[in-house]
Amino acid sequence: MSDEKATRMKRATSVRIRLLMIALLPTLVVMPLFFMVTAVNWSSRFDNLLIAKVNGELTIAHQYLSSLLKSSDLQVRAFADSAAFLEHVASQDTAAMLKLLQNRRAVLGLDFLYYLPSDGSATSSPPLVDSDDLEKWPVVQQALAGQGSTQIDIFEQKDLFSVSMTLAERARIKLVPTEAAVLTDRTEETRGMVIHTATPIPGGKGILVGGLLLNRNLEFIDTINDLVYPIASLTEGSQGTATLFLDDVRVSTNVRLFQDERALGTRVSAVVRQAVLEQGDVWLDRAFVVNDWYISAYEPIVDSFGNRVGMLYVGFLDQPFQDAKSSTLFTFAIAFAVIVLISVPIFLRWARQIFNPLERMLRTISRVEEGDLGARTGVHYSQDEIGRVAAQMDELLEQIQERDRELNSRVAERTQDLKKANQRLEATTKQLVVSEKLAAVGEIAAGIAHEINNPIQVIQGNLDVIRAELGEDINQVRTELRLIDEQVHSIFLIVNKLLQFTRPDEYADSLENHRPANVMTDTIPLVQHLLNNAKIDLKLDLLSTNQIAINRTELQQILINLIVNAIHAMPDGGRLTLSVQDGPRNGNGGMIIAVSDSGTGMMPNVLARIFDPFYTTKQGEGTGLGLSITRKLVELFSGEIIADSTPGQGTRFEVWFPIIGVDEDVAETRKK
């Protein structure tokens, strides 16, 4: 009893735990998971917004650089088309041309401007030191061909020297060791990134070429920064930056090394260099810039030769945005914790209002189990479901108590019914005794079969002696000896099959694949004497050679039961038809074994009971178990058996088994 109480207490505890889990699961599990998923999703969207923002800022910077190139092209072209310039070209006054170029270069804000006639030396401001390699630039070549253009070009140190020593000195930038950059042996950058413009002069009188050096061009980079990051465009504490790279070196930037020192000569990180300069991709992601992490955007710059020679960069400090994101998530977490602290006590109170009545109902059930049918829950909540369940439970207990009284009155009636059932059981026992007698007959038949085997062995041995004694004279009686051998072998087969049938447990083979047609042929000798005595005409229709998975002996038992019943139904003779043919059923491949007789047939009421155990129409001769056992054997191997009978015309039994496949040789023959 103590174990039962412990079990009930355990159940009550289990109910309480489950109810608490139901009450607290949304708050302590579902909501935290929802919060985490939301936080991760919001954080991802926040980062994507930052990337989208910096991508838009890179677009603005790119458009400004493009407009600067276009403006340079328009200004140089307008000067080349001006009347004043064309008058100086026509006058061929070199001094006046030089003065005009100097004035116009200052107005246009160019670092160099020179006039290259079709058949003469260049006139330049500042004066060119060396004008031998001017035509190597694609923009110059296009202008000489009559097509003006503006491109970014990289001037080597000697190219800058040929224009101006001052320009070459301005382009020189010492390299600063930079964290995360590719290792290099260089100590300075001496090349210059130039906006290179060339336009043809009307009348084919030469070309006008101008250039603007972007190295240390702080006005250019600060203008980009002001366009991209106006005041109050970033969160408090963040800082917008813009940079122009020559290769991977910052040649113009507003990124600071210290408070007032720009990070000229520092280099881009190796991972950005790989993606932008070597692969030609646009970088939109966080990147390490000089000494901190920035939300960054880089795009490659291509010169007039089609080579990637630098990068344009914009970005803003990442940490303030990360701090703002962390602060927002922390605020949400605090708000969630407050909600949990407030809601959990309320949920627990509601849960107790549920499991307290349930525990009272459980205790009531325990008292009823102990025999107290008068126990009641005592829960009365007319407005909720639990109260209605408790009321229904009390009503059911009232009904159970009333039915218990009625049950006692019915016990006597049931006792009388049991006595009658016992009488029927005794009758069934008598039938089982008959079955045991049949088993004894089987044992006797088996003994007789063993006794027949002994003379067969003697006959076979003497035949061997006769063959040995006759020697060469054996040819005179060879036919007679062969006939004796065949008949002895036939006797051996009949005896062996009789043993298999009477001793199935001793001779039964395992579940194997058999052709019912072959088993049918082997079974006929076992009943041949009955066929002969009753003068029955046997017809075989063995069309199917498919196989089924069955115990051979039990299949033989099924066939013998059906054949013997058919013979008994034709006491005055008749025709017995045995057939094996393919017959699918319910979409499954199978075969039908049919046993048909032309006997007396059966009435419908008899046909309906032929498979019932111990039911027989052979009063004093049968046990009524043959067809019952046959049906059980058929169903044991996933088969079906049906019977159809017409009084005065005969009976047909059909046994259906699922096939396992068609013999390969037979299948090939059918194809041919």
What does this structure look like?
The radius of gyration is 55 Å and the shape is elongated. The protein is built from 17 helices and 19 strands. The chain has helices at residues 2-81, 83-91, 94-108, 138-144, 157-163, 165-171, 218-228, 270-278, 319-369, 385-470, 478-502, 504-507, 516-534, 552-568, 604-607, 626-636, 664-671, and strands spanning 112-117, 123-125, 149-155, 173-174, 188-189, 192-200, 206-213, 240-246, 249-253, 283-289, 292-302, 308-317, 512-514, 536-542, 548-550, 574-582, 590-597, 640-646, 650-658. The relative contact order is 0.06. The longest helix is centred in the middle third of the chain and has 86 residues, at 385-470. The strands form five sheets. The chain has a five-stranded antiparallel β-sheet. The chain has a five-stranded antiparallel β-sheet with strand order 9-8-12-11-10. It has a five-stranded mixed β-sheet with strand order 14-16-17-19-18, with helices on one face. Helices cover 55% and strands 18% of the residues. Helix 1 (2-81) packs antiparallel against helix 9, helix 13 (516-534) runs parallel beside helix 14 and helix 14 packs antiparallel against helix 16. The protein folds into two domains: 1-344, 2-Layer Sandwich (Beta-Lactamase); 508-671, Histidine kinase-like ATPase, C-terminal domain (Heat Shock Protein 90, 2-Layer Sandwich). A hairpin with a 5-residue loop joins strand 11 (292-302) and strand 12. By secondary structure, it is α+β, with helices and mostly antiparallel strands. The two termini are 79 Å apart.
